[in-house]
Amino acid sequence: MEKLVRYRQIVEKRLLEYSEQKPSYKNIEVETIFDTKRDHYQIVHVGWEGKHWTHSCIIHIDIKGGKIWLQWNGTEDDIAEDLVAAGVPKEDIVLGFQSPFMRQFTEYAVG
Q1: Residues with Cβ within 8 Å of residue 37, at least 6 apart in sequence
Q2: In tens digits, what is the pLDDT along the chain, a chain of 111 residues?
Q3: Is the pTM above the cut of 0.90?
Q4: What is the 3-state secondary structure (H, E, C) of the chain?
């Protein structure tokens, strides 16, 4: 249970830091979505870019099975390495956006 609490804190802290990176176009809001009951965490961009409506998930992280699942990373940052720097062992990070077959070739957990 301590590990789960620590992982929640790490993920929330990192996402709050990432949410400080505002898009250059002014009418886009950056929303952090933390479902701590089910361990789903996201950063979403919402708003108008000129005449076009924008609604996109920038980062999506889940915690399941004692591991942090990086489901989507729409940034240029290496979020997995940031998690490692925060104290999460590589064997507790799953690159969910990679196919299960390809995960075996990464330095991270396969699932």
Answers
A1: none
A2: 799 999 999 999 999 999 998 887 778 999 999 999 999 999 999 999 889 999 999 999 999 999 999 999 999 999 999 999 999 999 999 999 999 999 999 999 999
A3: yes
A4: CHHHHHHHHHHHHHHHHHCCCCCCCCCEEEEEEEECCCCEEEEEEEEEECCEEEEEEEEEEEEECCEEEEEEECCCCCHHHHHHHCCCCHHHEECCCCCHHHHCCCCCECC
Say which CATH class 2-103 falls into: alpha beta
